[in-house]
Amino acid sequence: MSDTNYLIYLDILGFEDLPQEIASKTRVKPSKVREDFLDVINERVEVADAKGEIEGKRYGDGDDWLLVADSFKSVFRILNHDTGYLDFPRIPLEIAVGTIVLGRGAELEGVKLSIEDDAIAFLKTHIVDYYRKYYREQHDDQPIKSTFIVLTESAHRELEPIDKTKCRLIEYQGVKFFAADLEAFLKRGKVFNFLDQIEHPSSRLYYRIDELYVPPLEYEKIRSTLAGKQFVFITGTQEYGKTYTAVRLMWEYYRRGYQPRWVKGKEKNERIRIREKLENMRAELKPGHVIYFEDPFGKTEYERRESLEREIAALIDCIRQVDDAYVLMTSREEVFKEFQKETVTAGELEAFEHKLNIKKPSYDFERRKAMVLKWGEGEGCKWLKNDKLRQLIIESMRNENVLPTPLSIRDFALATINIVTEDELREKIKEKSEETEKAFAKEIKNMTDDKIAFLLFPFVGFFPVDFVRTTYRELVKQLGMKNAWEFDCVLNWFRDDKVKISWGDRIGFSHPSYSKALGYLLTENGYISRINAEILSKLLLKLAENSYSAANVASVVADRFDELSENVRNQLLLKLAEKGEERGLDVVSTIVKNFDRLPDQVRHLLFELAEGYFDRGYVISAVARNFDRLPENVRGLLFKLAEEDNNAFDVAYVIVDEFDELSEKARNQLLPKALEKDNGAWGAALALANNWLRLPENTRNQLMLKLAERDNRGWALPERLDRFPMIADELTRVLKGLL
């Protein structure tokens, strides 16, 4: 706890006159009204004290209090009271707030107060008196009759950023202080009371549910279903705001006078109690209540309860038989689908279900943007005041993979409050985005093997439905999966959530985060995971046999080389080398990059591929890029190719095409060798022409010098570049000049 605390002075306005007015209308004696007023404020103070928010307190001789609090929350709590008198629900108060330093000085019921610095300023300036005078000047000498809150400059500095904006600076007779927006502070008090009701009194997630919430696309439909049918089921992607939306709905009902209740389901024993309460719904429900059952069927995986599956329709009927009572439930998409599969009245639930889904998405770019700006303001993030940094975050979020969920956005704001550099922000954006992917990975890991096998298909490639159907059936049979679902069942299971059908009939992920998530399942504690060894590896070996899917497998091998077992990756490279051009550059580059880690049989593939028409260019490019670190016999492969006139064209073209990416050693040794051949010179000139605008001027000049240095035939090369007349003219002019 900080040494700086709030010093709060409270006094009841009109303590003599107002009770007289109330007594004249209620037949209650003025003395009883005064006692009630004191009891109401004392009760609010005691609540704050019981919650550990009050460090010290002293009651005056009459109707005033002096409190030391560790946060401004106590003021919000005290404001939010009810007198019980119909036409006078709130007691008019004058409240002054300053700061105090604990640890030395005067005593206040056991709490030491500093009467120096800010505390002295607070006591000497008497900001309450100054505000009264200021108010009279502004209101034709009329006295104040309604609640007001004034703060010293030091107290204002301690407020949270949003609360600061709800205070007005007043300078009067040489004294500076702030006056709070009463309605805004009353609303904050109501939020804290709401959090008490739902048993989340210190929540940083829900503490500004009234201000920071950004509704998903489906919000009005969810609200309408709850209002019209008294029951709504919110399902969907994890981290996607299901609980936050349920809490927001409870808040809206609370503001209308309903009693909220949150039946939590974080722990398994809590969920058992939830299901028991659901089965006794009539006893739980009362008019004027809104009750939220959190994840009753399981948090990450379905927890069966046969009686609930059988009687869910009757429970819904029971809810609707209680007038003016409302029920919300939430569940992750996968868990809810398992429940639907088991219940005999699954169709009954569809009319009540609404999905918050990353596939749609329920939170598009504009909503995610609004969310990060609101949370940034709520947490007082310093980057929010820097246009460049704020724009960096917003532009990054145009990528749907960046901070894709409400939870990732909120966590990002909390983690970047004091960050003011681009590099640190980029790192936090990456970190919080990856946390979402890891959460998705945990969800997938809990699935049955047949579902995981299905999701590995779009992880490997973008395949047609019929191709996946056939291969899936073969894989399931090969792996001996018992009780595996038929292909169409598993496809329909994921179709509304994790996968989509596009380009006519191709299966892909509904969001790139799912593909990233599967990547986290390939290793576990630094070792090849079971999912990798038993499912993915078998799938890759099967797909590598088919020319149609070989290129996709080659990409996986190239990207995930270190995450595959040595035996599997060697088998895959040998299989892929037999499939022809469709495996592309990936096989060649993988062999070259990992040359020293491969057995001789796989290494030899590189020399075989160099003889092929389609792969020669890939070999030249990969070897040239890794020239300095490869053994002499591999480097010699390029010199051998350059000696043949036809192959010299490819060698020269690749070297010029990738000139700035190659080492100086590779350029200086390979290009002169290739230029000894006419076709080598032609290949270099054509590459120069094709890349003329991309290459820096000094690089172009170097290359033209090298062309000019060969024999007198060099000057005629541009005449063959009829597709590039401007570059050909330039080459002709420069080469003739050089010669």
What this model shows, in words?
This protein is an alpha/beta fold. It has four domains: 4-185, Alpha-Beta Plaits (2-Layer Sandwich), CATH 3.30.70; 198-356, 3-Layer(aba) Sandwich (Rossmann fold), CATH 3.40.50.300; 365-442; 632-739, no CATH class. Helices cover 54% and strands 13% of the residues. It contains 35 helices and 17 strands. Strands 1, 2, 3, 4, 5, 6, 7 and 8 form an eight-stranded mixed β-sheet that branches. The longest helix has 24 residues, at 422-445. The model is unreliable at 712-716 (pLDDT under 50).
Write a short abstract of this structure.
The chain is α/β, with parallel strands linked by helices and 739 residues long. It is built from 35 helices and 17 strands. It has four domains: 4-185, Alpha-Beta Plaits (2-Layer Sandwich), CATH 3.30.70; 198-356, 3-Layer(aba) Sandwich (Rossmann fold); 365-442; 632-739, no CATH class.
Which secondary structure elements does this structure contain, and how are they paired or packed?
Blueprint (H helix, E strand, L loop, with lengths): L3 E9 L4 H10 L3 H21 L3 E6 L4 E6 L3 H7 L13 E16 L2 E3 L3 H9 L1 H12 L9 E4 L1 H6 L2 H4 L2 E6 L2 E6 L1 H16 L21 H11 L1 E6 L5 H14 L3 E5 L4 H12 L1 H4 L4 E6 L11 H15 L4 E8 H10 L3 H4 L3 E4 L8 H15 L7 H10 L9 H10 L6 H24 L3 H12 L4 H15 L7 H9 L3 E4 L3 E4 L2 H8 L3 E2 L2 E2 L1 H15 L5 H10 L6 H11 L7 H10 L6 H10 L6 H10 L6 H11 L2 H13 L6 H12 L2 H13 L6 H13 L15 H14 L1
Parallel strand pairs: 4-6, 9-12, 9-13, 10-11, 11-12
Antiparallel strand pairs: 1-3, 1-4, 2-3, 4-5, 6-8, 7-8, 14-15, 16-17
Helix pairs in contact: 1-2, 2-3, 3-8, 16-18, 17-19, 18-19, 19-23, 20-21, 20-23, 20-24, 24-25, 24-26, 25-26, 25-27, 27-29, 29-31, 31-32, 31-33, 33-34, 34-35
